[in-house]
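[agent] plan:
  1. take the single chain provided in the ticket
  2. run structure prediction with default settings
  3. attach structure tokens to the ticket
  4. add a short note for the reviewer (M.T.)
[agent] executing step 1
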Amino acid sequence: MANELRGVAPSGNALYARLINPAGQWWTGAIFEAYAAPDYASYAVALTEQGASGLYVADMQAAIDAARSQP
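[agent] step 2 finished; step 3 output follows
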């Protein structure tokens, strides 16, 4: 699948998603980890605007599935 993450905002903005699993861990782009304030910027998943529509999307990284299966 593609574009599973979606957001709507006025055109021209920079939108980011932050992914948190059921255990309350935050996605770093490589692993889920306990929240740490110094790492906050690494939790951002950039969404890309589709044209000038105000619809912003991003793909869920395939690595998330692999990370979920780890203890």
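[agent] step 4 note for reviewer: The longest strand covers residues 45-49.
[agent] ticket updated
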